[in-house]
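Duplicate of earlier report; ABC-type D-xylose/L-arabinose transporter input re-posted below.
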Amino acid sequence: MAETTLDNVTKVFTDDDGSDIVAVDEVSIDIEDGEFLVLVGPSGCGKSTTLRMIAGLETITDGEIRLDDRVINDIPAKDRDIAMVFQSYALYPHMTVRENMSFGLEESTELSDDEITDRVEEAAEMMGIGELLDRKPGELSGGQQQRVALGRAIVREPAVFLMDEPLSNLDAKLRAQMRTELQQLQEELDTATVYVTHDQTEAMTMGDRIAILNDGELQQVGTPLECYHEPANQFVANFIGEPSMNFLDVDVRETADGATLVGEHLEYAVSDDIADSIEGRSDVVLGIRPEDIDIERDEGRQAGGHEVPAQVSVVEPTGDENIVYLVLGNDEFGDDTELLDTDRETIIATIDGMSTVNSGDRVVAHIPEDAIHLFDARTGEAVH
Ligand code: ATP
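Output:
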């Protein structure tokens, strides 16, 4: 049990022609005791490097990593009291499951043989692989190998678990099942876990908190719902949520009783508190999530207030919902080809799977004011 602190941690690699690659840039995170923290971000953003520095598999260029109050920068990986589970499982092919799980325990702990056997059997039971202890990894399915890799981490009873995309080699169904199992296991063990994934759904469903990285820089740390409802910037807003948030460039026009956001196809009056938060700005980016947009067939009526006229270009049914692509504006597009070819502003709305709209339909899209996000047009920082 321990609290892990990353204090301005930086990693600079030097590539073959001598130039520097800043893989991790002054990242600071406090990982609380017993917490499930998910490190998430696109490929190459520095997730694995961060995890490897915590594990002791990568040196730290600058900054400090602490386990409770102890600085562990220079402590070898094997002495850190941290167990890591890899995407590739990293099992020894010539050893049985039992040997894989107990390997290293003899040297790194003072446990007797009986105690080691007990621990291995208990962890195997927890992972549902009690029957497989005498098999070799080659005789196991991918899912079973993953359980062994997790079991091997559990027997060490470490202060912290580190997991690098541990489910990515499993098929979609098994991955979903293992997600739930892993969460339950983590709650049971009550041991801090840092879990790396590039999959925002995995991050949202598994993490107590998520830490979002981009280009080596930490963008936001918060609960999944905080990151969803109050994204710190446009990158987080875009990364969290599926389909992604829509963004529209708008000018700010100050009016006697507030402000109006003026876009290519939009005149959107906002209330005082929003007007206050964008006072003095000439332009912002308006963000709206697909699930917050309502659409209605226009039946010849004018779009008013917080509505935008649009024409449906594509409808993608997923079963419980329909993903609807909307070309904004009043122009009539004759057929599907014209609709799809247009480079006009398009937004996506998700609506109930039972509602019927078809490509070509003219609609009005309602953008509720309490659901809009506003971002600085240059830095992308959230301003509302
Ligand atoms: P992925 O999801 O693709 O695994 P990641 O977010 O885990 O990506 P890292 O593997 O941490 O990203 O890499 C971060 C950056 O550091 C990348 O630009 C990568 O090319 C670079 N990098 C990683 N390891 C090395 C290395 N040993 N030498 C040079 N550059 C490296």
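The chain has three domains: 4-239, 246-289, 290-369.

Merging into the original ticket.
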